[in-house]
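ligand=flavin-adenine dinucleotide
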Amino acid sequence: MFNIKEKMERIVGKTNVSDSRLDKLSYSTDASSKSGHPLLIIWPTDREEIKNIIKTALNNKYDLVPRGAGTGLCGGCIPDESIVIDLSRMNHILKINPKKRTVIVEPGVTVNELNNALKKYNLIFPIKPASHKIATIGGMIATNAAGMHAIKYGKTKNWIEEIEIITGEDKTYNTMNIKSFCGSEGIFGIITQATLELTDLPKEHSYFHFKLNTPKELIDKVNEYRYNKNILSIEYIDRITSRLMKQDNRYHLIIEVSDDTGDIREEEEITKIETLREGIGASLGKEKFIIFEDPWIPPKYQEYFLEWLDKMRIPSFGHIGYGIFHPRFRKNHAEKIKKMFILVKKVGGTVSGEHGIGLSKKEYLSEKEKTKIRKLKKRYDPKNIFNRNKIIDMQPRGI
Ligand SMILES: Cc1cc2nc3c(=O)[nH]c(=O)nc-3n(C[C@H](O)[C@H](O)[C@H](O)COP(=O)(O)OP(=O)(O)OC[C@H]3O[C@@H](n4cnc5c(N)ncnc54)[C@H](O)[C@@H]3O)c2cc1C
């Protein structure tokens, strides 16, 4: 009789399965501050292997955690004595169709790799999370990622033509019905391929950089630009973060436009402003602000929300043009996080604008949302083998 490791080795080969201590440690966590225990890590290279892995897991009652680059911020990849399926070796760009402006990709392709390959056609896949150098297309579809250019291009869902997914009922769907799967955080199955839509690569870009004293001044400035056609991104840094970054005690507003009308146009100056924006996470991490939330706040309450964060001494930054805020917390700030989400709900916001629910935000889902997800889970993963207890709590296997 073969044990589960041997069975998986027969599917993907010995070198593509590991239960070494080092691998188990690496795959015990993602970019959230949560951790768990993987049983095995598997690196499949095609859909047939994935089908066989799912069949074997179903027959032997093991549960599976799909994983892209592990940059998720809500614990979506945390295993609980589970088998982790790392999709990063399924990283081929299968077909670029410049006429139709579409591309077919495997799930492990990163946004940067894809956009580098598209450059010669003057095309881009326009969704750009701040993690774009490593986040995978599979992970972005699973979380319905947004990012810096959401104000112009929306979220991942808006740019998918078709998804191929193998579910927990051991069925393959090639579907344009992306509603059920985009943003489902790997709880129904594994995305094995996707057809993405593309757009023109902006020919130019330039920036404005404003330094402001109060939330009111900041929001007034955001409103001045919010509806302009040439806006690519409107990002802010609050004054607590600015101080931690060894800048001044002011709010910073960084506005990117898709032409040369911005004040910052020279390559050297553009690099400087982009470096400032990219350095936020590291500066906050150094000060132990490692928990990264992402509420969406309606425009009417954005000024009030900024004032509240400042009063509570919570550093923040984010895609303010699209309404997504990134307040950061230390590990012992559970009470502050709870208070913030109460406020978010009170002002008609949503607890997650882009990162998803995973393990960290389950308690804030409404009964209506839970019932809807439970219904889909019963349909697509009736034995509950995928991402068990993420988003909603379900009984162990075979609900
Ligand atoms: C510094 C930093 C900045 C970030 N900035 C942004 C931002 O601007 N906007 C934004 O939206 N997010 C942002 N994120 C969060 C994160 O990068 C995104 O959620 C991203 O889409 C996750 O991609 P990934 O490949 O790392 O997925 P992972 O973290 O590996 O997985 C995320 C979820 O997707 C599931 N999953 C992964 N691949 C598949 C697959 N092939 N099939 C089925 N399920 C799958 C996993 O099970 C998990 O639930 C940021 C993260 C970091 C660390």
